[in-house]
Design a protein that fits this description.
By secondary structure, the protein is mainly alpha-helical. It has helices spanning 10-21, 28-44, 50-54, 56-64, 70-84, 87-99, 109-113, 117-132, 146-161, 163-167, 169-182, 187-196, 202-214; strands spanning 222-227, 231-233. A hairpin with a 3-residue loop joins strand 1 and strand 2.
Length: 256
């Protein structure tokens, strides 16, 4: 559907593309399974602290019990690796992958807006979306942190809940590319997430290629109202900023 014949009127082409990209209606069982996949993705992308490391057998069992799907296959590949590593290896790999490399940062508005004043407004808009849905995220993490966005999607559903994921599709593609290039097993987590989303348009693919080559925009501005380096100013390019702790995610039953 990326290549609609040019003879089709522009308005009709737009509607056809929108129809393809619109989330399909799900049965109650499919909705429940999708929410579980999103929660498992959120859990997989959180820092592998001692609690998460101890819960690995339960997480692995939950993934293996998922109905067959491309997302379940990718999650199974990741959780098999995840369950086999010692905790110190997991912690080190996570920090090297997500905290020390900008191209695989988990803060989604960075890819859309870079270090510009528009990013501060995007964060505020996202926080207000959560509040309007009645979700209190008081864990201290920024609202665009991917595990947070995934947890909101699981709670709020395929429409409004997954809208931030669809909005940041290009950033997710870029993270996936970076993880593939680095050979990180976390590439399976991003592949599972992308399998849940509508396919990218040609414009998406071109924008991701440009982002990969040039990087997001940058300017010396503050991040009001979020403060210094997550509470004020953005860090200069290539400066390491330790991430704030993520809020606790709703985990599969028995994973606590």
């Amino acid at each position: 559907m990326n290549d609609v014949p040019p003879a089709v009127p522009a308005r009709v082409r737009t509607r056809l593309r929108a129809a393809v990209r619109r989330p399909a209606r799900l049965t109650p069982e499919e909705t429940r399974d999708r929410a579980l996949v999103l929660r498992l993705l959120s859990l997989a992308l959180q820092y592998p602290d001692a609690e998460l490391a101890a819960a690995r057998p339960t997480v692995l069992a939950a993934v293996r019990a998922l109905p067959p799907s491309p997302a379940a296959t990718e999650l199974a590949a990741f959780t098999t690796w995840f369950a086999e590593q010692d905790p110190q290896t997991l912690e080190r790999h996570y920090v090297e992958t997500f905290d020390l490399r900008r191209r695989s940062s988990l803060y989604l508005t960075y890819y859309l807006h870079g270090d510009t004043r528009r990013r501060g407004m995007a964060l505020l808009t996202l926080a207000r979306r959560y509040q309007a849905a009645g979700w209190d995220m008081s864990g201290g993490e920024l609202p665009d942190h991917l595990p947070v966005v995934l947890e909101f999607a699981a709670l709020a559903g395929t429409g409004a809940g997954e809208a931030p994921l669809r909005q940041h599709r290009r950033g997710l593609d870029l993270i996936h590319r970076a993880l593939e290039s680095a050979g990180s097993p976390y590439r399976h987590v991003l592949a599972a997430l992308l399998a849940l989303l509508p396919p990218p348009s040609r414009a998406d693919e071109e924008a991701v290629a440009k982002l990969a080559a040039e990087g997001p925009s940058n300017e010396d501005v503050g991040l009001d109202p979020y403060g210094t380096y997550g509470h004020g100013e953005f860090a200069p390019p290539d400066t390491f900023v330790p991430p704030l702790p993520a809020p606790p995610a709703s985990r599969p039953e028995g994973a606590r």
